[in-house]
Amino acid sequence: MFDLKTVFDSTPSPQLIARTSAPDRKKFTPMFRILLTIIATLSIILAAGWLALRRSDIPFEQLDSIYTSSGSRFLDLGGEVRIHFRDAGPRDAPVIVLVHGFSASLHTWEPWVDGLKKDYRVITLDLPGHGLSGCIDNDAIGTTQFVETIDRVTRALDVDRFVLAGNSMGGGAAWNYALTYPERVSGLVLIDAAGWPPEGEQAQARPLAFRLLDYKLTRQVMAGLDLSALIRSGLRDSFADPALVTDEMVDRYSALSRAPCHREAMAVLSSGEGRVPATQERLAAITAPTLVMHGEEDRVIPVAHGVKFSEAIRGADLKIYQGVGHLPQEEIPEVSLNDLRAFITDRVIAERVLEPVE
């Protein structure tokens, strides 16, 4: 049995507790106050910096005045949703449709358009949430939405068959379109195309600008900020030669990213939602003549992925460009354009899937 008297007698008196605990409280209170002061100061600095970097949306009217051209047109999808596109070249010429990548716009194709529009009808478009296009539904943004946007634009222009080329994310949309509407694709061109999931060291080797967007908290914090510095960094990592990144290019990417709803759209896309992964079985169903282009120095999508596309799609041609990064259409426009023309002549027209220019 317990001896209650012993228990009670062994319990320190309140006075003793006060005397023994007081020195500890005096010892740690100043340190705790210093720590709180540091945390509060850092919080104020971070909050002030965050507020200083916040940027509001830029209205489409203002962006249109800067980035539209005489060839710009808009497809009205209703509910104030529009898709920006350009349609250059002879109306009766063979058609080529060009689809840009993540955070880019139809401006990436200007070197190719200049070299093609004499002999081909060239259609370029801004995907939903990019360029001067609005957002259809950011909860459903991704490959399927992009495939349907390509289809709506081409059908609105009464285009039945065409060569379809896509870069990066646009390449992912292109090969998915070829699977969804095989009867409409006379030729497929995949330029540093997306689709294969990153593995191991490949995931860590991606540019910092892309890796930061993998985290939901980072995306939420960055959604309303001025991301010009991060955009410049991402562009410099996308080109093998960083000198090709100009202030004008950075300003355009930055301004268009601030169009209404665009930052939210890119946050969803960067999370990986809405992607359709490439597999050997899936790609084996592509029947259109295919050309795969890939920069050997691509730090966004490794050249090994281009090789995998060429191996998975039966009869695909492969062009690997030494000293070139993620954007061959901008880095080596003449070389890549010559390869495109040769592919159309030797594979698409020769195999009679596209009528030659009269």
Written overview of the protein:
By secondary structure, the protein is α/β, with parallel strands linked by helices. 47% of the residues lie in helices and 14% in strands. It has 16 helices and eight strands. It has helices spanning 4-10, 14-53, 60-67, 110-116, 143-156, 169-180, 201-204, 208-212, 216-222, 228-238, 247-257, 262-270, 280-283, 303-312, 328-331, 333-349, and strands at residues 72-78, 81-88, 95-99, 121-125, 162-167, 185-191, 290-295, 317-321. The chain has an eight-stranded mixed beta sheet with strand order 1-2-4-3-5-6-7-8, sandwiched between helices. α14 (303-312) links the parallel β7 (290-295) and β8. α5 packs across α6. The radius of gyration is 28 Å and the shape is globular. The N and C termini lie far apart (110 Å). 39% of the residues are buried.
Helix-strand blueprint:
Layout (H helix, E strand, L loop, with lengths): L3 H7 L3 H40 L6 H8 L4 E7 L2 E8 L6 E5 L10 H7 L4 E5 L17 H14 L5 E6 L1 H12 L4 E7 L9 H4 L3 H5 L3 H7 L5 H11 L8 H11 L4 H9 L9 H4 L6 E6 L7 H10 L4 E5 L6 H4 L1 H17 L9
Parallel strand pairs: 3-4, 3-5, 5-6, 6-7, 7-8
Antiparallel strand pairs: 1-2, 2-4
Helix pairs in contact: 5-6, 10-11
